[in-house]
Structure formats: C-alpha cells, structure tokens
Amino acid sequence: MVLQMTGLVTPNTGIAVSSFMKYILESDNIQNRYFRNTAGAAIKNVAPVSLLKTMPIPLPPLPEQRRIAAILNEQMTEAEKLRESVEDQLDAIKFLPASLLRQAFCGNL
Description:
By secondary structure, the protein is mainly alpha-helical. The chain has helices spanning 18-25, 28-37, 50-54, 62-105, and strands at 4-6, 46-48. Strands 1-2 form a two-stranded parallel sheet.
C-alpha cells in the first residue's frame, strides 16, 4: 500500500531529480516512516507534505540520481511488460479447460 500525501512535492532541481524522488518516496523505507508518523491520523495512510520537511532523505549527487532513476525506469518498464504477459497467459489458461472439453466431446483427443 502506498501512502498518499496531501499536497504537491516538487524537488529543487539543483538538489534532486524528480523521477529519483518518486522512487525514494515510494520506497518501503520512506513509506514505513510515514506509517509510523501517521498513526491516529484522521484519514488512514494520508500524511501531510509538511512531514517531509522534518524527515531527512539522503540524496546522492545529481548524476548518480539520474543514473539510478534511468535504471529503475527501465526495470519498471520491463516489469510492466512481464505483468502484461503473465495476465495474457492467465487469460489463456482460463479458457483452456473449456477448449479441452470441447475437443474431448468432439473426439479430437
């Protein structure tokens, strides 16, 4: 479950790359810190952006952030392709029993 934040987070481009920050903010480490700090919140799993101001987030140099973000983007694209492939295979499997029964009743097995 991804924690929702109220407001817009826009990193200073001289300090952070937005695509890198997206992955950082979605990381288990940051998400777990938010969950601990939002216990008893009026809306579960919603944290104010002001919580980011008090949370240290270590950042590598900009070139390293860009490199990491590029790698993660490639991996996420590949993961999405794999997910779609698995979903297609599952859809085919759903129709397999009906197809086998049809073949059996028609004497094709």
